[in-house]
Structure formats: C-alpha cells, structure tokens
Design brief:
Blueprint: E1 2-4, H1 15-19, E2 24-25, E3 42-45, E4 48-51, H2 60-72, E5 78-82, H3 87-98, E6 103-109, H4 122-130, E7 137-141, H5 148-157, E8 162-165, E9 169-171, E10 188-191, H6 196-210, E11 214-216, H7 223-232, E12 236-239, H8 242-245, H9 249-263
Parallel strand pairs: 1-12, 2-5, 5-6, 6-7, 7-8, 8-11, 11-12
Antiparallel strand pairs: 3-4, 4-10, 9-10
Helix pairs in contact: 3-4, 4-5, 5-6, 6-7, 7-9
Bound molecules: flavin mononucleotide.
C-alpha cells in the first residue's frame, strides 16, 4: 500500500527504490513536452521544501514510446500522472494511455500550483477522461480550497474511482540577505512536514463525504505518519519529499507501519483505514472501487 508521490522519484535512475514500492507513480505528463520553469526550482525551508518545477516532462508521445516500455520492465504496477491546460489535454493523454495494459491506473493532476492556473472544473475533466478509459482514475486534489470534500464529491460523481490527497500548497521563501524570492518563479509548492495536518484534514473530510479509496500523502516521514493517514481514511499512502533525503524510506516506513498498526491491535495496516472516524462507518470491503487497482 506504499507508493511514491508523483514527481518525487525517478524510477529509471533509482530502480531499486521504485521496486521497494507497491506501485510507481510517474511525474505528471502533458500532451506536449515542457522544459518547466527557470532554475532555481527547489528551495529548502525550515518546515519543508518549496518547488516550482513547472510540469517539466517529455510529452505524452515520447513518454509512451520511450519511457513506458522501460518503466514496465521494473515489474512494479505503474500509475501514470497526467496534467494539462485544457479539458482536452487531459482527455488526449488518458486516451493515449488507455491502449497500454502496462498502465495500472491514471492519476489526474488537477492541482499543480506551479503553472498558471486554468480553472476548468474538476468534474468536467473527470467526466471527459472517464469517457476515454475504464482504467482506475484517481483525482489528485489541492487542499487549498475552502471545501476539499465538496471537490471530492464532484470528482466521484463525475466518475473518478479514487482520490489522491494532497498536492502541495503555495508558499514563498525569501533570501536572507537580498530579501528576494529564492525560487526564480517566485512562489512554489510547499511539501513536507508542514503539509501533514493539512493532508490529514483533507483525507478525513473526503473519506467521510465520499467513502472512496484514497491515496494519502503530505509530509509522511515515518510509519506513524502513514498510520495517521490510514486512520483518517486513506487506503494507500504515498511518500514524496522524504525520498529526496532517504531512499530507504519505503522499506523503513513499511516496517514501522506494520509495527505501529499491530501495537494498536490491527491485524494489518489495511485494517486501520477509517479508524479515526466514529464507529458505524462502512467496512473497507464496502468501499471497493468498481475498477480495483492491483495491490
Ligand atoms: C520536487 C517535486 C515535484 C513534484 N511534482 C509533481 C508532479 O509532477 N505531479 C503531481 O501531481 N505532484 C507533484 N508533486 C507533489 C507531490 O506528488 C506530493 O503531492 C506533495 O509533495 C506532498 O507530499 P510530500 O509532502 O510527502 O512531498 C511534486 C512534489 C515535489 C516536492
């Protein structure tokens, strides 16, 4: 049940780390190649990391022709993250991926804070992409909205099978001496420890409102952090920023998670899903998607 967060692991340069996960999630792919934003694109802060990568990627054609066959050789289920600047961009990428059995699931990046926003409603994108594939579709949402659970409900009603929560939230860091923004782009996406309570709140509210399968992420650095997300309602957990500092994190966190779960009386971590909610919630079995993802 451990994945990487999109954009936080290059499986082709670190195949052993990718193989230590239960599924590998690609960096977001768009229809056309993108160089991304100007450097500097990463800055450490006291509370986490700021990035403004700007969706740098080879474009869907090169991704499918060159990268997908090599990623498939890893032997790990593949989730492909797609993004774009119009509803049609998303539909086009999903339609290309639908023909490839090596793609287990598709994550719709509906929430990148580093590109000039286009505001097509979540439901419109989910509906258009749903028409292009029967593969499991996960809507990756931003926590920077007044009511993330309402967006989650809209994604579910439009045909999403699951949710990925959360993406980064906009932040700014200034250079100590010049007081100028440290990232060339100005603001960037804040990830890491500061996101933990934000992610927990988003998962908790979205699970209560939708009962959908959720990939929880945001600042996970230990088994305890992962267990919190499961208890809030996630059925999978993704590791992001922690992978830059600790490539051994998947193996370590998996072992810690098993230990932390068993100390609280759960036969396995999967049994902890939803434990933070009042009794009487539906059993996890009842929450299965009609398009189940291989483990
Ligand atoms: C360097 C970097 C690049 C990222 N690129 C993407 C991306 O391409 N697509 C996406 O959906 N999220 C992207 N994210 C967001 C992560 O997938 C994740 O949602 C976020 O970092 C929160 O998890 P964390 O606190 O464990 O890092 C990126 C994050 C970082 C730090």
């Amino acid at each position: 049940m451990l994945l990487n967060a999109s954009g936080c692991l290059d499986a082709l340069t670190a195949p052993d780390v990718a193989r230590s996960l239960d599924a590998y999630v690609t960096k977001t792919v768009t229809p056309l190649p993108r160089g991304g934003n100007e450097p500097v694109r990463i800055a450490e802060t006291e509370l986490g990391m700021l990035n403004s990568i700007g969706l740098a990627n080879p474009g869907i054609d090169r991704f499918v022709d060159e990268y997908l066959p090599r990623l498939a050789e890893l032997g790990v289920p593949l989730w492909v993250s797609v993004g774009g600047f119009s509803v049609d961009d998303y539909a086009q990428c999903v339609s290309r991926l639908d023909a490839h059995p090596e793609v287990s699931a598709i994550e719709l990046n509906l929430s990148c804070p580093n590109v000039d926003a286009f505001e097509a409603p979540t439901a419109e994108i989910v509906e258009a992409t749903r028409a292009e594939t029967a593969k499991p579709l996960y809507a990756k949402l931003s926590p920077a909205v007044p009511d993330v659970a309402a967006v989650a409900v809209a994604a579910r009603d439009a045909g999403a099978d699951g949710l990925s929560l959360v993406n980064t939230i906009r932040g700014l860091a200034l250079d100590e001496r010049t007081l100028q923004p440290r990232l060339a782009h100005g603001a960037g996406g804040l990830s890491g420890p500061a996101l933990r309570p934000i992610a927990l709140a988003a998962v908790y509210a979205s699970y209560a409102a939708t009962h959908m399968p959720i990939v929880g992420m945001g600042g996970v650095e230990s088994g305890r952090h992962a267990l919190d997300l499961l208890a809030a309602g996630a059925s999978r957990v993704a590791l992001g920023t922690v992978l830059f500092a600790d490539p051994g994190a998947p193996t370590r966190i998996r072992a810690e998670l098993v230990q932390e779960s068993s100390e609280r009386g759960f036969a396995s971590p999967a049994n902890a899903t939803g434990a933070a909610h009042a009794t009487g919630m539906a059993e996890p079995e009842a929450l299965e998607s009609p398009h189940p993802v291989p483990a």
